[in-house]
Amino acid sequence: MYYNENTIIYFNGQFVKAAEAKTDLYSQSLHYGYAVFEGIRSYPVGNDTKIFKAEAHYNRLRYSAELMKMPFNYSTEQLIKLSYEVLKQNNFTDAYLRPIVLCSPNMSLSKGKECFLAIEAWEWTNGYLANKMRIMTSSYRRPNPAGFHIEAKVSGHYVNSILACQEAKDAGYDEALLLDNDGFVAEGPGANIFYEKDGIIYTPAKGNILPGITRATVLEICNELNISVVEKHFTTEEMKSADAAFYCGTAAEVVELASLDEVSFPKKWEESLCGLIQKAYKAKVLEQPLNVTKKVA
Ligand code: PMP
């Protein structure tokens, strides 16, 4: 359950009970998937609550709205302040925030005339890290960048994610891996992908993916730890020779991949660069020191 009768959200200029907030059945967002959103995590840091990369997330929300030509006028500063207020009003520390920009009733296919902001939050009880995942190459491709602004986080894009994720689950896998329109590895339904091969980390280049904030953080970590990273287009065949691999995203954090299409990644996670990156990510979100500073072999 995402909310109960006491949960408070920010909605349309006010803090209101989630159970009492109402949205419109005639909105463009509901009918056409014309809404933009973010997924953000807050963590306990000392005695405080800190929203990880709040500025990057809210800059992306504003950028997504701008690409969709929505009249969304909040500043990043305002959005961050409101988010902390939602956490405070609910007494949340370890939480997931879901801001969404919705458009007003309008059945036409022209741009949104008016939009509303909701900031929802729920406590994060999954803890850090899911189990390692067995993934399969999806029969669905990521949305064509010639048809969508795929670098924006738009609700409608997620129909593609649902199709791919459910297909993988129906086939007995934990998650899907989607290719881009040229047949190269793109990303998961809600996460970016990395793999390790002979001491080098690889990830798909930008252009056909949602370039995640976690992906950017992983690149930052690799730079700090002196780990070589190559951003390029690669095939699933190349990826199947990887030593180790992970998915990363705000919600997934850094999660180990056990196999792709039943081909296992052989390196012991604890001895892999991927495992080190996972540790470093955890340390970063919790603002704790990372004891390892040197590149491992
Ligand atoms: N790709 C897709 C399709 C996603 O939905 C997400 C989650 N937002 C990501 C990648 C990872 O992005 P981030 O690290 O910014 O959460």
Extract low-pLDDT stretches: none
Q: Quick check: average pLDDT? A: 95
Give the overall shape: globular
Number of helical segments with 4 or more residues? 7
List the helices and strands and how they pair.
Layout: E1 8-11, E2 14-17, H1 28-32, E3 36-37, E4 40-45, E5 48-51, H2 54-67, H3 76-90, E6 95-103, E7 115-123, E8 133-141, H4 158-170, E9 175-179, E10 185-187, E11 192-197, E12 200-204, H5 213-224, E13 229-232, H6 236-239, E14 244-249, E15 253-260, E16 263-264, H7 273-285
Parallel strand pairs: 8-9, 8-15, 12-13
Antiparallel strand pairs: 1-2, 1-7, 3-6, 4-5, 4-6, 6-7, 9-10, 11-12, 11-14, 14-15, 15-16
Helix pairs in contact: 2-3
The structure holds 4'-deoxy-4'-aminopyridoxal-5'-phosphate.
Describe the structure.
The strands form two sheets. Strands 8, 9, 10, 11, 12, 13, 14, 15 and 16 form a nine-stranded mixed beta sheet that branches. It contains seven helices and 16 strands. Helix 2 (54-67) packs across helix 3 (76-90). A hairpin with a 2-residue loop joins strand 11 (192-197) and strand 12. The chain is 26% helix and 29% strand. The structure holds 4'-deoxy-4'-aminopyridoxal-5'-phosphate. Residues 39, 187, 190-192, 210, 212-215, 249-250 line the site of 4'-deoxy-4'-aminopyridoxal-5'-phosphate.
